[in-house]
Amino acid sequence: MNETQESAIADFLQILEEHRKNCVRQGKYVEADVAKNRIDELKSHEANRRLEAMKDQHEREKLGIEEAHMLEFQQFNLIWDKKSKEYQQQCDDQVNMMME
Length: 100
Prior knowledge:
Elements: H1 3-25, H2 29-99
């Protein structure tokens, strides 16, 4: 959700709060209670939406880190295998030299 939508939600909550206060001043307590319940519902929904957005962002970041780790691990294994083969070849060469 972009900043414009978040701003619109904040504006709507402010309007509802003003409406609730006006209803209380005018003695319309049932309508004020309905507005309060709607405000609570919207705040709860917004908090859940933000939580889910944060979880999604964290999951994307986690996957990116895991992918980078796997690539680094693969590169390490390639280098290790190459060095291991070179070392084994050197050992074989030295053994052959000593046998001659």
